[in-house]
Amino acid sequence: GLSGNISFDERGDIKGRYEVVNFRRASSRAYETKGVGIWDEASQQLSINISDIIWNDDALSINQTESFSSCGRKCSVGEIYSYYKNTCCWECRKCQANQITSVNATKCLTCPVHEWPEPVELTSCKPITPEHIEWHHPAVIVFVILSLLGVTACIVILCVFIRYNDARLIKATSRELSYILLAGITVQFAIVLSTVAKPSRFVCVLNYIGFNVSFTLVYAPLLTRTNRIHRIFCKGKVTTQKPHFTSPLSQVIIACTLIAIQVSCVLS
User: Fold this and answer.
1) Is 146 inside any structural domain?
2) What is the tally of structural domains in the chain?
3) 175, 119: one domain
4) Which residues on neighbouring strands pair with residue 81, listed in sequence order?
5) Cα–Cα distance measured from residue 39 to residue 47, given in angstroms and rounded to the nearest whole number
6) Are 145 and 222 found together in one domain?
7) How many CB atoms lie within 10 A of CB 164?
8) Which is it for the CA torsion 33, 35, 41, 42, positive or negative?
9) Are 41 and 3 in contact (CB under 8 A)?
10) Which range of residues forms the domain containing residue 94?
11) Strand, coil or helix: what is 23?
């Protein structure tokens, strides 16, 4: 040909020569393209005049002299290469917080239960280190102080009940049920101490049982006492005969039965 040898590929397409142009600013309001080299597909040779190229100085660092061309950026830690269909180019996709990168950063794998990605490379899972609140934490100190004050108050009230156990006022409050109620309140205050303790199998079982049973120790005597008063007033409207199961022993048995039902449900 007039410009040199002409060759064709296996499909019959001509192997051409392509001009490399530099797109640059010509003035403050106009741009232009200027040829700076030739790419010969047949000989696989590039002839280019670097001195004719004007780079975009705003996009380059001080020491950079050439632009960099790539199908996609290098993926960061925790990202995988997601390749486009029928091309070698890719985009970076971030894995979820509980996933690691594997197979040359082309696939996200979810860590097993109770494991979490190691924080540096995010390529392996490691067991999760349990974290718990420390005794020196300000909130724990406040809770412990309030808990101890509550337990102390319950002990003082118990001593008063024992000291005046035969007083009419104490007897009128259903003292047997009051002792059960006081025990439940004491357990509720004391369970705070085990709640802020370092978790273990024993502590977890203690918290679970103590939390549920403590409320039953409070509600069971209240329910029993309310039922007793209700039956006494209802019975008094029609007869002077004393209702059944209103004695202190009967009341304790009813309350303990309710507590036993709750304990069996908790332990089952």
Assistant:
1) yes
2) 3
3) no
4) 92
5) 6
6) yes
7) 13
8) positive
9) no
10) 79-127
11) strand
Q: Which helix (H) or strand (E) element contains residue 218?
A: helix 201-236
User: Which ranges of the chain have pLDDT less than 50?
Assistant: 1, 59-62
Crossing angle of the two packed helices 201-236 and 175-195, in degrees rounded to 10:
160
- The model's pTM is 0.58
pLDDT digits (tens, 9 = 90+) for 82-126: 888 777 788 899 999 999 998 788 899 999 999 999 988 899 999
Contact between 123 and 99 under an 8 Å Cβ cutoff? The reply is: no
CB atoms within 10 A of CB 20: 14
**One domain for residues 15 and 111:** no
Give residue for tokens 């200027």: 34
Tell me the three state secondary structure of residue 189.
helix
List the structure tokens of 184.
């439940």
Q: How many helices (H) and strands (E) does the chain have?
A: 5, 9
In angstroms, the CA 246 to CA 33 distance is 105
- Running DSSP on this structure, what letter comes out for residue 71? S
